[in-house]
Every structure is written in structure tokens, then in C-alpha cells.
Amino acid sequence: MPAVEHNKLLSKLATTPYNLYINSIFGSVTIANANNTAFVSPNIDTFYTYGILDIRYEPVVITIPPIEENRYFSIQLLDIFTNANYLGSVSNRTEGKYIVAREDWNGTVPIGIKGVVRVPTSVVLALGRIQVFDPYSDNDTIAANLTKAASFPVQTLSNFTGDAPPYDYVALNWDNSTINYSSIAEDADVEKFFQIFNYIIQYQLLSDTDKKVLKGFEALHLGANVSFNKADFTADEWTEIKEGAKEAKIDLLKAPSKLAGGWTISPDNTANWGEDYVLRALAAWFGIYGNTKEEARYFISRTDEQGNAYNGSSSNYTITFASEPSVKYFWSLTLYKPNNFFYDNTIGRYGIRSIDNITKDTNGSFTLYIQHEKPSDDKVNNWIPAPDDNFHLAFRLYGAIGDNDLPIAVKSD
Asked: What superfamily in CATH does domain 2-161 come from?
């Protein structure tokens, strides 16, 4: 699933209406909103930048500009299975020029290069996050300027050294089909799912374990650039394939979770999945492109203190904090609909951030109000609008310090 879901964003970026140039990085100067559906569970804290790095033939060089020390930024370099390496604040790969190369590259590092980042893929998604200090106005021009393509220049290594390119370039092809995971047992979705997998997997440098696992699926015609068509299977075989896909989705939902005080915590191996096939598939479904624990910790809550699913049509909720969570950079609490996208509401608010004008008591404690109807004026600053339907909550802590025990939402009516 992560490879197919990953291809979904790559293909969107590379085709109409985005038409992103290969080996370039560009961004958006708006915080994600209810219209953003490029990938699930976006944040409300940063500008995003996007880039597709084609290193099939040679590495690329990315230039990181000067950025204030107190502004979090990262460029998450993702492989096909959504494992990540980084340039940015936490990795201490800041101002300078960096080579991004395949793990098997053994070329010479030229003068002027500050470091080399190796990735197990030939096609890299460069997903950037730039902290925004003032999301409600145009005052944060520094963050806005960093989303421009010229801010993070990308060039091939041969262009950097002034040498002739060591290849005849062949363009990448993309399949921008959208898979309907809610109906994965339907013929068209199952067939397209595995066709996309067989295409995109050619760009991943597989581990020995990955190769062994994939070899076990040869009878199902799974593998790099292998033809996968319904017509190649008997009716009974196709029924078994569909049932297997359906059961796999059910089994994913049964995967064990790490809990703390009612919150599900992001796994310690987030974005360093290795061969943890279940967790990386689950993450791709509910919150693809999560950061490593060094960059950020994620906490998810789907039920109140009584174990009942959150629902804005039947209940109001509150979360009371004795103090703000302890972080180096920032925190936010975001509300998502069951499909992992934002709830479109009249005030355009999808959560509460540490930079927001939160109403606090004199001792520093504060209460957040999560409900469908607008609360009284004295509570509006701390209100997170909820749909008249089910929803869930996501807490992000960037540069988390300590364990940060989080309170759980309780019914307030």
C-alpha cells in the first residue's frame, strides 16, 4: 500500500494541473485547508514544498539557503516505501550544498559539497515543511519566499561540476489513477492497485528480505514491470485475489497500537519502517509521510474518556491542559473527518496551534472546546469546529521534549 499511495502523490505532482518539473522544488504559500486532498492528514503548521528528484542516472545537488535558527524546516527525502532521510533543522543539515544519491552510488564528492545523503531509491519525493510564524497574514514573508523554486535550487551533479551528462535521458512515466481503498475488493481497483505497484517498485532498491518476500508472490504476477491483468487468472483465482485484498484491509485495522493515556502514539520506527510491512501500510492509509520521532511525535485519539467514538452531532468535548506541551519548535491539535481530511467549516479553522491566540487561565492552564455549534464568545479562541458526524484528533509535537502526557477529550454535555 505505501508504494501505491506514494505513487498517487508523485503522479499528481508530475501531471496536470501541477506539472512539476523533475529535479525542482516548489511550494505553496498557504496553510493546508479543506480543499487540500493531495495526501491524507496534512498539517496546519507549515508551508509544504514538493519536489521529484530523478537520480536514476546520477545524483542531484540541493542548495539549502540561510534560514533562521529558530525556524523549523525540513526536506524529507522519501523512498518508494516512505522511509525517510532529511535535510533541515533537526538533522543539522542546514545552509550549504548537499548531494542526494542512491545508496549504491560510488562517485567522487566534488569540492563545495557539505554532505551526502543516500537513499534506497531512484526516484525521491522531496517533501519540505517550513514553519510559519504568522499564518493569518502576509507578514511572514521569509516563510513564503522559502516556498519559491529558487529558494532550494536543485541541479544534477554533472551540471554542478560542469561535466557532460553521463546518459541519454528517458522521461519518467506516471499513472495518476486514484485507488478507491474503501472498495478495494472491486475488480477495477484490485487490478489497478497491483499494476501500479508493479510499475513503481522498479525504482526501489530492495533489501534482501524485500526480494525474498516479493519472490513469494511471483505466482500472483507481482514484481518490477511484470504484467498484471485480470485476464491472466482463472475466475476462482481472481476471486481469491479479491478476497485476499479485502481481508488484508481488515487485518490492517487490527494491527496493535502503542497507547498512552487514551492516545495512540506514532511508532518509534515511523519513516524508518525497514521491513515492518504492516505498520508502513497502516501509516500510508491513515497518515502518509509522517516524520521520524526525532523530527516530530504524533498522537491520535478516536474515542472519548468512555471509549465512545467522537461524534459532533451528539456530543461536545473539552480537553484541558495544565500547561502547554513541551516542545522545541511547535505543537498543534488537528481535527480530521473519517477520510483523514479537514472538516470544512465557516471560520476555516481545523485545529489549534501553539502560535494561536489561546485563552489561558492565570496559572497557564487552558481548555479547548471541540463541538459542532459555536460556543460563547469567551471560548471562541479555543474552539475547534467539529462536523455533525464522527471525527478523530491528531496531536503533533515538533521537537518534542520529554514524554508529554496528553489529556484525553471528555464529554462536556
From this structure: Domain of unknown function DUF1254 (2.60.40.1610)
